[in-house]
Each structure stands twice: as structure tokens, then as C-alpha cells.
Amino acid sequence: MFFIGLDDTDNLESHGTGHLARLIAEALAEDYPVLGVTRHQLVVDARVPCTKNNSSAAILLDVDGHTDHKALLRRVRKLMLNEYQPGSDPGLCVAHQVPEDVIAFGYRAKCQLVTQEEARLLAEAHHIPLLGLGGDESGVIGALAAVGLAASGEDGRYPLVGRSRELTGLQPISALLAAGIAAVQTRDGCPVTRGLVQSDKLRPARRGGRPILVVERDGDHWLPVKLD
Question: By three-state DSSP, how is residue 64 classified?
């Protein structure tokens, strides 16, 4: 699997990192099998410049290590620059094999301040391409963190996976599974195999390296729960 981490850092006029990631995933799907886009929440701190939630995103590609990663990097870089908004500080990272140090960096970025220098030195040590594409380039922090967190398989949620965004209203479990969600379960991990789920704006969690929809009971149907 290839992990493409990006953080647009945004400005007040841009659509945000998640929207940008979905645009790029749609373009890449013409040539690569896209497994989904994941959103990862990073530390919320007044010292971190962001327009809203300080989140970053990863695009997951089902390709092996023989893929031309340099060509992939150039393509995503061009797509990001096409959408660049003055005042944003985008960063980009592309990795195939993600070491534990990078996963640990991602988890640290969720709860404490980390620096560009840390991100760049870590990426350099593991020969992972990490690019700043404008502004003060602070997006490199979120880009590397997104790669680590997505690679962990246990963080974030999917704003895009399969056909899940096409679902609306109450849907049976079978429709969710057919749309690309791997499983449905309660907060305490009990499988849910029957009943109807409110499917507007589904955001399954990334757990065990799969899109898992966590739900809670609401009367005669199930409601999705958003997890970070």
C-alpha cells in the first residue's frame, strides 16, 4: 500500500484539506486502485495556525513497492499546486513502507506540538519524500503525521471509501457492506448484522486497517458515530 499524506493548512477561502484529498483521490483513481481517504485529527492548540480543526488527510492506494513513487509524487504535487491558495502552507508526503518511528510521530502530533525540523529530519532518516509546497511549509508536519497515523491502521475516519458517500437515508447493513464498509459494530465492539442505519454522511473509522462503522441504537434504527 502507498500512503499519500497531505495537509493544506487552509485559508479562509479554501475548501480544506479533506476536500483537496478527495479531489486528488478522484484524479488518481483513473490510474491507481484507491482504497479510500482518511482524516486524522491533530493537536488542538492556540499556537497551531489553522482555520478550523487542525486535521490532515491520507490517500490510501492499493499498489506495491514496484510502483513509480517518483512519478506518483510529481503527479500529486502538481495536483496540489493547481489548487494552491495564497495564505496556505501545504505539505505533501508519499510513503510505501512506514516505519514505527513515523507512526509514533503521528501519535505525538495528535497530543503535543511537534516541529517542522522534527518532521523533516525523521523523513530524511527514513528516505521518505516530504515536501513543503508554499507559504511557511508548516503542512509538512500534518502530511508526515497523516502517513504515520494511516499506516497504524488504528486512527482516523474515512470521509471517502468505496461508494459510501452515495448512500442516503435508512439503509440495511447489506447496503453498507456492498458500498465498501468492512463491518458495522457498536462502541464496545459487538458486531451489528441486522437492522437499518442512518447513512447520510457516513464516516467509518479506520480500525484494524479497515473501514469500520461504529453505531449506536436510536429507537428502531442505528445512528453512525464519528470517531477520530
Answer: coil
Residue pointed to by grid coordinates 482555520: 51
pLDDT of residue 153: 98
> For 160-177, how does the pLDDT look when each residue is reduced to its tens digit (9 = 90+)?
999 999 999 999 999 999
116-128 confidence digits (pLDDT tens): 999 999 999 999 9
How far is Cα 37 from Cα 180, in angstroms, rounded to an integer? 12
pTM above 0.85, yes or no: yes
Residue position matching grid coordinates 509538512:
140
3-state secondary structure (DSSP) of residue 59:
strand
Please report how many Cα atoms fall inside a 13 Å half-sphere around the Cα of residue 110, on the Cβ side.
Answer: 17
Cα 121 to Cα 140: distance, rounded to the nearest angstrom: 11
Instruction: Please name the residue ranges forming H helices in 83-131.
Output: 100-111, 116-125
Q: Which helix (H) or strand (E) holds 21?
A: helix 17-28
Please name each of the domains of the chain with its CATH number. 2-158 (3.30.70.2200), 162-225 (no CATH)
Asked if residues 90 and 6 have their Cβ atoms less than 8 Å apart, the reply is yes
How far apart CA 163 and CA 76 sit, in angstroms, is 23
Residues 6+ apart with CB under 8 A from 187: 214, 216, 225
